[in-house]
Amino acid sequence: MAVSLKYSFQTQSSYVLGKPVVIGFTLESDTQTDVWILKWYTPLEGIKGKILRVTCDGEEMQYQGIMMKRGNPRREHYVLLHPGESVSAEFDLAENYSLKKCDECRLDFKGRIHDVVFNQQQLPPAVNEQTPVDASGTPVSFRIENDSAK
Question: No. of H helices and E strands in the chain?
Fold first, then answer.
């Protein structure tokens, strides 16, 4: 069965260096049936790995957060999306990246959903039975300014 997932970010046009950089993330299903999405390795569970590409004025920022080791997922690690439905979460980018003052901070999700399930009775599958899917979306850009620039 074909799966169509789209992600988007919600940002401010600028943020202040040294303060929270709160970003909204939305994942939407364009699939014609119910689908259960594994939240692991997506902003839906918070940032717990190298799942984002962050550049400040062209320089790639290195991820500095925790790295999770995973076993088999449990049912509560999935979220149900009905056709056309979306799910959203917020995260603070500054918690996992040393950001700097820049005219263009560019943010993108690597777009990999590690498992989708169409039948609730199949939840949760073992790691070797997971069905990964790529989600499509568009990077966003914003400024990071010194406090005095406001």
Answer: 0, 14
Encode pLDDT of 10-54 as tens digits.
Answer: 999 999 999 999 999 999 999 899 999 999 999 999 999 999 999
- 36 domain-assigned: yes
What is the pTM assigned to this prediction? Answer: 0.92
Domain assignment present for 73: yes
The type of residue at 120 is Q
Domains in the chain, number: 1
DSSP designation for 97: B
Q: What is the DSSP string of 49-82?
A: SS-EEEEETTEEPPB-S---------GGGEEEE-
